[in-house]
Amino acid sequence: MTSEVPILLTDLDGTVLNRFTYQWDGNDACLRSLIRAGIPVVFSSSKTAAEQQALCEGLALPVPFFSENGSAFHVPDRWTILSPDAGEFEWKEIPLVPAGFSIQPVREALISRLPADIRLMTRCSAEELASATGLTLGMAERARQKKYSETLLFPSGDVNRSLPEEWLRSMKMIADPGTRYITLRHESAGKEKALEFLRVWLEQNRVKSFFLVAAGDGENDLGMLASADEGWWLGGEPVPPGLASTTEEGPAGFSEVTGRLLNWRGTNPAS
Question: Where are the chain's structural domains?
Fold first, then answer.
């Protein structure tokens, strides 16, 4: 690392959160420790704005985030890198997709093109989605509130099914495979592009000396991890070339990354 201020850009499900129970597994305390130590955290996930705002409310922390695989950036209007506790605030949304883009025509076309056993998350009821994913009803309702993307649910979690790639390209859409689902997002979005947007946004907001650390566990995180100043892979073996890896996978690995950052700042109470 360098003398620059570290900023952590992290995936959520399977990285900070348990991918099956959607619980923090102790990482809520890790996030609070990072922010108290002056290490800003930014979430980057396929989750909707409603889902991530609820997580921030549960943490009682205004964490900036990218929603729907880099489709939009959401930041508290009073948040700064030096004062992450914004107090009373409103969420500001900055879309990364083109002005006027609508996901609705894509959804309508998917219904006629995909096999009947592949379901669109936004077309499931909250009860159906909770049954298929393990989400609570409240979580499922927030997950359905997609504005820029669509997530596909496969029978038995079979995410290796082929999709109509030529048609997706014609619609300027890209399929991001996750560990349990596939999310379709506009080609102008994506986690790697979100990271580059964050660099520019920080510079425009007069943050000149920073060091981007990224953490993730899935294939759709690889571009983000490779583009970061330091990328941490939490997905187990094999470790993608050029990335650092943790001893443990998933949320346990995230606590390792947290410990490393706190040690570097000299603020780890366990050290």
Answer: 5-96+190-265, 104-186
